[in-house]
Specification:
The protein is of the alpha/beta class. The chain has helices at about 35-45, 55-70, 80-90, 105-110, 130-135, 155-165, 220-225, 250-280, 310, 315-325, 355-365, 375-390, 390-400, and strands spanning about 70-75, 95-100, 115-120, 140-145, 170-175, 180-185, 185, 195-200, 210-215, 230-235, 235-240, 285-290, 295, 300-305, 365. A 7-stranded mixed sheet has the order 1-9-8-5-4-2-3, with helices on both faces. β4, α6 (about 155-165) and β5 form a beta-alpha-beta unit. The two termini are about 30 Å apart. The structure holds ligand T4K. Ligand T4K binds near residues 102 and 201.
């Protein structure tokens, strides 16, 4: 990654040199220290034990449980299957209130387990499920809430947990983005009945593919253990329906080798986030997500909202112009889950009922954020945005 242009520059889309010679992606997966990884690999290869809740997965569960302050950690092959198992473990039936402003996995998990998703609008500033609107969505068939701590920003957990208590609902938090987040001094997994984290390669801590259900009730851990292993309770006993949701020893080995790197990565990203904020918050038309007060963040990613009036370009126009700079920003989460052909006929998917989510899907852009990007990398992304904005008229003509 090397500099190819200075601070006052012509956007690449208008013939200037791109900000980066090679594409810079929205994130870059952490790679483990080789020696640490080899140590863990040797354990797996030496034991010739590759899966079925072996010692390396068990150690990873214990270490993650400790790191995240959870009562239990049940490891799964990915976050999506972990979400499905979490819903099944609570023995639910009926409707689940959720957000459309999320990755498809959240809503697919609801549908895949035979439940009906009910979309509810998000708060315009925190981008998370709006508890007041969620209360309006709760009806006679509602059995649970499935809010998402979107981009690692804690939901209004007090209001949602109070709603769940008042209406006799269960709450599963999709905490795929929230590994290590703490809110008001408490680990994020302390809220709700269960929380689900993703260990996908794009996450701040990962096992290439992987995920986990976090909770407190040991009986629930037992149910999850059965669900992820075909319902097998012993050599001669299969108890109910199960799936194959196991994390392999090889994936867990990667996780154990990466756990020590997560704190440093978080710190590096915190510094880069500060830099982005310093450089962009004064720029008219660029807004940041309002983070819940008293939150220890994990800086999983860097999302901005582009107001076309103030910025002079739409989010999509900026996205195109950044591509020309070799900045591969991403439009998470566009399209909304409620726009998916599988769900768009649901009454709750009516765009008129989801104005904030629709606005955010048109406006939010995730910019590159990973430790290796460095301050200079952030500087160049910001310079490119400033230059694109300063040449908004010409950029607009060039992209249409
Ligand atoms: N709930 C929520 C709210 C979620 O966001 C997700 C997943 C889930 C549930 C489900 O959890 P999992 O079943 O996935 O554990 C990515 C991830 O695949 C997905 O895990 C994640 N959310 C989502 C937000 O992002 P894509 O399709 O955008 O990924 P992709 O392949 O375009 O990668 C993005 C960038 O990451 C690449 O440009 C470069 C970098 N990257 C990617 C991979 C795969 C790496 O550096 N190394 C890699 O190996 O979905």
């Amino acid at each position: 990654m090397s500099a190819v242009s200075g601070p006052t520059r012509t956007p690449a889309l208008l013939g200037g040199k791109p900000a980066f010679e090679d594409p810079v992606t929205v994130t870059r997966a952490l790679s483990p220290d080789r020696a640490l990884f080899e140590q863990q690999l040797d354990r797996v290869l030496g034991a010739r034990w590759f899966t079925n809740h072996g010692p390396v997965v068990q150690e990873l569960e214990a270490r993650v449980r400790e790191r995240l302050g959870a009562g239990f950690c049940a490891a799964f092959c990915n976050g999506t299957v972990a979400l499905q198992a979490a819903l099944v473990s609570l023995d639910l039936e009926g409707e689940v209130v959720t957000t459309p402003f999320t990755f498809p996995a959240t809503v697919h998990a609801i549908r895949w387990t035979g439940l009906v998703p009910v979309f509810c609008d998000v708060d315009p500033e925190t981008w998370n499920l709006d508890p007041a609107r969620a209360a309006e969505r709760v009806g006679g068939r509602t059995c649970a809430l499935l809010p998402v701590h979107v981009f690692g920003n804690p939901c209004d957990v007090d209001a949602l947990d109070a709603l769940a208590r008042a209406r006799g609902l269960r709450t599963v938090y999709d905490a795929a983005h929230a590994f290590g987040v703490r809110h008001r001094g408490r680990p994020i997994a302390e809220f709700g009945d269960l929380s689900v984290v993703s260990f996908h390669a794009t996450k701040i801590f990962h096992t290439a593919e992987g995920g986990a259900v976090l909770g407190r009730d040991p009986a629930c851990y037992e149910r999850l253990a059965l669900l992820r292993n075909f319902g097998i309770a012993g050599e001669e006993e299969v108890r109910g329906i199960g799936s194959n949701g196991k994390l392999s020893e090889l994936h867990a080995a990667l996780g154990l080798a990466l756990l020590p790197a997560e704190a440093e990565e978080r710190l590096a990203r915190a510094g880069l986030t500060r830099r982005y904020r310093e450089r962009l918050s004064e720029l008219e038309g660029v807004c940041f997500q309002r983070i819940a007060p008293d939150t220890e963040r994990n800086h999983y990613n860097l999302a901005v909202e582009i107001d076309p009036e103030g910025f002079g370009l739409t989010r999509d126009e900026l996205h195109r112009a950044l591509r020309a700079e070799n900045v591969v920003a991403r439009k998470y989460f566009h399209p909304l889950c409620s726009e998916n052909p599988a769900y768009r006929e649901l009454p709750s998917a009516d765009p008129a009922e989801l104005p904030n989510a629709h606005r955010l899907a048109r406006r939010v852009l995730c910019l590159p954020l990973f430790g290796e990007l460095g301050e200079e990398g952030v500087e160049r992304v910001c310079e490119a945005i400033v230059a694109i904005r300063a040449n908004a008229g010409a950029v607009r003509r060039a992209v249409c």
